[in-house]
Design goal:
479 residues, 4 domains, four-stranded parallel β-sheet, 48% helix, globular
């Protein structure tokens, strides 16, 4: 087909052809403050940079402009194919190319572009770990944000299912399902094969997908205000006291993880307060393409969190996707909002925070129990935070404990794995992770992302439940 398998060489016909197809729209979308673009070549020798998402620009939603950019980027991806093993978007794209009459991107029907978009769940791994053509490379490829743009156009045109609107309305569903009279019925129904068949038919939720449990006492009712008491012990990089952004999942579905987090932090002399109020971080709506809903969530959360930062609190979030939302996606959507940038600078993954404390001798390393062998899955949204393997670093301090680290996507994504049309694909993506857990013959397994942990559980089908790393750390402390 005349396609290089490892990217084009500088000066080759393929390179010149691809470079020539870099559209004026894509060049114009690069902010004026962006670094100078590197010469066209195999890839970057510089760290990738991320341009702000120009989502308020009317051209962002222009169909013709979008299709032109999709064709340009798909053509580059077709000539490289390094991302084929990451998710289903790329095999879908390459199958469309290979089955087209021209064996090129120009042979794909434009209405089929959406098939590629639907399989992208914005994990960002292609951008962070595979693609050699991300900015500052001249080809300026940001595949996840292009998929996000396509999702936003689709949402604005009203081409989303009622199911998807419901699944991404996590606060509303959590409040309703957590009503004491309702919660037992909801949890029982979600475990009923008969009801799950009805749910599959009526809403498109796969009967084989594990659905999260709900609790009549969410974390916000469990939190003890006494956890905020105590004297902070700052370091050069931490204030020594944290505000917990509990997250909708940690509040309604797994409040035990937040309880364990607070217990561990208090055991290390770190006062923990709870954000006065919170909404969903906005990640589910981002993945739906509902950017206006993301802005509404931002407007509810950022003033509360910025006020805490001003009062001298650092912020932690127990779910990697939520931390990433404040660290990366909101700053890219609202690059000129000083409060968004303030919260970004103060937001930490919990194990990142403990690792910073440990670096300066402020971590309690008096563990009372060993953990044996742990199969530890590193979630995608933790990997793209670029903080290093902090969870593994802390758990490795526990005596007589070994960590089998698994750096591969679980395929869950919060909603992708529960949708009828994508569930089987999600489990296929997860299969190598499940195989690694089985081969590890471990005492414990789990992930920083609770949903990824349950996706692995669904693949194992052995009755053994995942354990969150923070819960394991609490066990090791014996508290």
């Amino acid at each position: 087909m005349g396609k290089p398998t490892g990217g084009a060489r500088e000066g080759s016909t393929e390179t010149e052809r691809m470079a020539g197809r870099t559209s004026e729209a894509s060049r114009a979308s690069v902010p004026s403050r962006a670094p100078r673009l590197s010469p066209v070549g195999e890839g970057n020798l510089e760290a990738p940079t991320r341009h702000a998402l120009d989502w308020r620009n009317p051209s962002f939603y222009d169909d013709e402009s979008l299709l032109k950019e999709l064709e340009r980027v798909f053509d580059i991806c077709h000539g490289c194919r390094r991302c084929v093993s990451l998710c289903q978007s790329f095999p879908t794209l390459f199958d469309l190319v290979d089955e087209s009459p021209t064996l090129e991107v120009d042979g794909i029907k434009k209405e089929d572009y959406g098939k590629v978009v639907d399989h992208c769940y914005l994990c960002d791994l292609c951008y962070m770990t595979k693609c050699p053509y991300v900015p500052p490379h001249e080809w300026n490829v940001d595949f996840p944000h292009l998929m996000l743009r396509a999702k936003a156009v689709k949402f604005r045109k009203g081409e989303v299912k009622t199911r998807d609107r419901i699944l991404t309305s996590t606060d509303a569903v959590g409040r309703l399902a957590g009503i004491p009279v309702v919660v037992q019925a909801v949890n029982a129904a979600n475990r009923s094969p008969v009801f799950r068949k009805v749910l599959d038919t009526a809403l498109g939720v796969h009967p084989g997908a594990l659905l999260p449990e709900y609790h009549s006492r969410p974390y916000r009712k469990r939190y003890d205000p006494g956890a905020a008491a105590g004297t902070a012990s700052p370091t050069a990089s931490t204030q020594g006291r944290v505000a917990l952004f509990a997250t909708c999942y940690g509040n309604y579905n797994e409040p035990m993880v937040n309880e364990d987090l607070v217990a561990v932090f208090r055991h290390n002399g770190i006062p923990v307060t709870l954000a006065e109020k919170e909404r969903c971080c906005g990640m589910p709506k981002l993945e739906l393409g509902d950017l206006e809903a993301v802005e509404r969530a931002k407007n509810a959360n950022i003033p509360v969190l910025a006020k805490l930062v001003d009062a001298g609190w650092d912020i932690v979030a127990p779910v990697p996707s939520c931390a990433l939302m404040f660290k990366q996606e909101l700053p890219l959507m609202f690059p000129d909002d000083p409060d968004v940038l303030k919260v970004k600078a103060a937001m930490y993954d919990p194990f990142e925070y403990l690792a910073l404390r440990h670096k300066e001798g402020k971590l309690n390393t008096n563990f009372s129990k060993s953990l044996g062998k742990i199969a530890y899955h590193v979630s995608c949204h933790l990997r793209v935070q670029n903080i290093g393997p902090k969870t593994r670093e802390i758990l490795s301090l526990v005596p007589d404990t070994t960590i089998e680290t698994i750096e591969r996507c679980s395929g869950h994504d919060g909603t992708y794995a529960v949708k009828s049309e994508f569930h089987e694909t999600s489990m296929k993506i997860c299969r190598p992770v499940v195989d690694r857990v089985k081969a590890a013959d471990c005492d414990h397994y789990g992930s920083d992302c609770p949903m990824a942990g349950h996706q692995i559980e669904n693949g194992l089908k052995n009755g053994k439940r995942p354990e969150h790393p923070m819960s394991l750390l609490r066990t090791a402390y014996g508290i």
